[in-house]
């Protein structure tokens, strides 16, 4: 396949841009995954704390 110089340059620019977009998406996915995991853990901890407080309050009222 014999490509002209402008076609080679444009193809190379397309490949470099695609690799850059892929790298940014990959890094963003990894960061978002960790943040989502941490947020989920924090939310479950708050929900469990609230449930525990409500259970203690109910037990005190019943006693």
Layout of helices and strands, plus pairs?
Blueprint: H1 5-62
Short description:
This protein is mainly α. It contains one helix and no strands.
Number of strands: 0
Strand content: under 5%
Distance between the termini: 87 Å
Shape: rod-shaped
Contiguous uncertain segments of 5+ residues:
none
Portion in helices: over 70%
What does this structure look like?
The protein is rod-shaped and about 90 Å long. By secondary structure, it is mainly alpha-helical. The chain has one helix at residues 5-62.
Which tags fit this structure?
single chain, 63 residues, mainly alpha, 1 helix
């Amino acid at each position: 396949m014999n490509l002209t110089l402008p076609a080679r340059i444009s193809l190379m620019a397309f490949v470099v841009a695609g690799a850059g977009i892929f790298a940014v998406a990959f890094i963003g996915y990894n960061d978002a995954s960790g943040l989502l995991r941490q947020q989920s853990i924090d939310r479950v901890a708050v929900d469990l704390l609230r449930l525990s407080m409500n259970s203690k309050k109910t037990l005190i009222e019943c006693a």
